[in-house]
Design brief:
Helices cover about 75% and strands about 0% of the residues.
């Protein structure tokens, strides 16, 4: 039986196990990329957003520790990634509006 995503992230956070993090990326990159693509449209930007989400995850793997999600399935991991994506989209939209105001 393979480790759950939460177990892999816990192992990465506790032991800096690169193979554990790589497995999480392999499992979820396509899903995160597809969600990013629906939100931001340009494929290059969607790839950057997806990479950034996983990059953020490397800095805070404990954020998804099993103790925080006890009794739940792994859906919160993907939901959290999509929430992060939505926040990025909103920040980008806000900065674009400010840029447009500055040039007006």
């Amino acid at each position: 039986m393979s480790d759950t995503d939460l177990e892999l992230l816990a192992r990465y956070g506790q032991q800096n196990a690169e193979d554990a993090f790589t497995e999480v990326v392999l499992r979820h990159f396509d899903l995160v990329y597809a969600a990013a693509l629906r939100q931001v449209r340009p494929p290059q930007l969607a790839e950057e957003v997806a990479q950034s989400i996983f990059s953020d995850l490397t800095r805070q793997p404990g954020r998804f520790a099993p103790r925080r999600l006890r009794g739940q399935d792994e859906t919160p991991l993907v939901q959290s990634m999509v929430t992060s994506l939505s926040s990025r989209k909103n920040r980008k939209r806000g900065s674009t509006r400010m840029d447009l105001r500055a040039t007006a």
